[in-house]
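Write out the 3D structure for:
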Amino acid sequence: MAIVVGLLLQIPREWPLLVLALISLAIWNTVLGYVLAYCSSSDDAVNGEAVRDGGNHG
């Protein structure tokens, strides 16, 4: 955040571009977080195979 404030103080006429960059980075960070969470979860838990048989193994 301090970098953005510093950039605003250096070139105040570019504030729309800085706002657009902040929004883009926030969206990218959110999407990347979801992708990493999906990739790190096991396939069994994602597909529901871990609880499909109700835990009855014998």
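The longest helix spans residues 15-40.
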